[in-house]
Design a protein that fits this description.
Blueprint (H helix, E strand, L loop, with lengths): L1 H32 L6 E7 L4 H14 L3 E8 L1 H9 L5 E4 L14 E2 L2 E12 L6 E2 L1 H8 L17 E5 L4 H9 L10 E3 L2 H10 L3 E6 H4 L5 E3 L1 E2 L6 H5 L6 E9 L5 H12 L1 H6 L10 E3 L5 E3 L1
Parallel strand pairs: 1-2, 1-3, 6-11, 7-8, 7-9
Antiparallel strand pairs: 3-12, 4-12, 5-9, 5-10, 5-12, 13-14
Length: about 300
């Protein structure tokens, strides 16, 4: 009889322990899907090329974490790096490495590469030109070619629209598309959306935007460079060479759990990332360092 009672107590104890374990697991699962323990305000600003992805990610992140307020701003990569270094932004969005920006101490920032984006030369959608050699592109942006008829188009003056100083898009385009040549522009804009609008409104215009901007304005079209189409697939192999990483910089040693979690949410949101025209880091077949050195994975 005593043995039977002892066995009964052991069974009851085992059932109670199992139930307790299930409750703990359930609680852990709930905290992962909705991290209500995280709180605070985050300003993620800088790159306008990264802005579309950051905005979509912020909405989803705040839904899952209602005690965190995320504000996404533009202003350009230079602004992002400067403001995060000064502690005005919690996250500095940038198309360029911190090492490429003068006046920035890269050692005080933690780099998080969240995506890759290509940059396309764009013209008005009614322009018949669909391909330019790299030399033709450089000659257009440096003022040596001034009419579209010189490159197989209509007899129409070329209007070169550039980006303002501090733009990461400009830094990358000048480096990888123009071979470091200095642009001679007719006008400049400080945001990717403004560039697309101006090119769409100007028949003879040419400029450059991130792939993530291409589908936002039907009045522009991308041109091939040297016969290579500006596509994500061509970027992954470096067949199309005009691309960069999208960085989200944090102040080293000072980032909060919510700031780190938001950066991670942007990086791992592959569905929205690809939908908006970006490339996942994991899809790249090559890697590029801050000095432009390229290595195969």
């Amino acid at each position: 009889m005593e043995n039977r009672k002892l066995k009964t107590k052991k069974v009851l104890f085992g059932l109670m322990a199992a139930s307790a374990a299930l409750l703990v697991l359930a609680a852990c699962g709930n905290s992962g899907s909705n991290s209500s323990s995280m709180s605070g305000k985050i300003i993620a600003g800088g790159s306008t090329a990264l802005q579309p992805l950051a905005q979509v990610a912020s909405t989803e992140f705040m839904t899952k974490n209602p005690n965190v307020q995320v504000t996404v701003q533009g202003g350009g990569s230079g602004v992002g790096l400067t403001q995060v270094s000064a502690g005005q932004f919690q996250i500095g969005n940038s198309d360029i490495f911190a090492e490429e920006k003068s006046g920035i101490d890269a050692s005080k920032l933690t780099d998080n590469k969240v995506a890759v984006v290509g940059f396309a030369a764009v013209v008005n959608s009614k322009n018949a030109v669909s391909n330019l050699t790299m030399q033709q592109l450089t000659d257009i942006f440096t003022g040596k070619i001034t009419n579209w008829k010189e490159v197989g188009g209509s007899d129409l003056a070329i209007t070169v629209v550039g980006r303002t100083a501090g733009s990461g898009t400009r830094v990358n385009f000048d480096k990888f598309a123009l071979g470091g040549a200095t642009e001679k522009t007719s006008a400049t804009q400080d945001a990717s959306g403004a560039v697309a609008t101006l090119v769409a409104q100007t028949p003879g215009a040419i400029s450059y935007v991130a792939f993530s901007i291409l589908d936002t304005n039907s009045g522009i079209k991308a041109v091939s460079l040297g016969g290579v189409k500006p596509t994500n697939e061509n970027v992954t192999t470096n067949a199309y060479k005009v691309w960069s990483y999208e960085h989200m910089y944090l102040l080293t040693g000072k980032a909060t759990a919510s700031e780190k979690a938001f950066v991670d949410a942007v990086k791992t949101d592959k569905k929205d990332l690809e939908k908006l025209g970006y490339i996942a880091i994991s899809d790249m077949k090559v890697e590029r360092s801050a000095d432009g050195t390229l290595v195969k994975k």
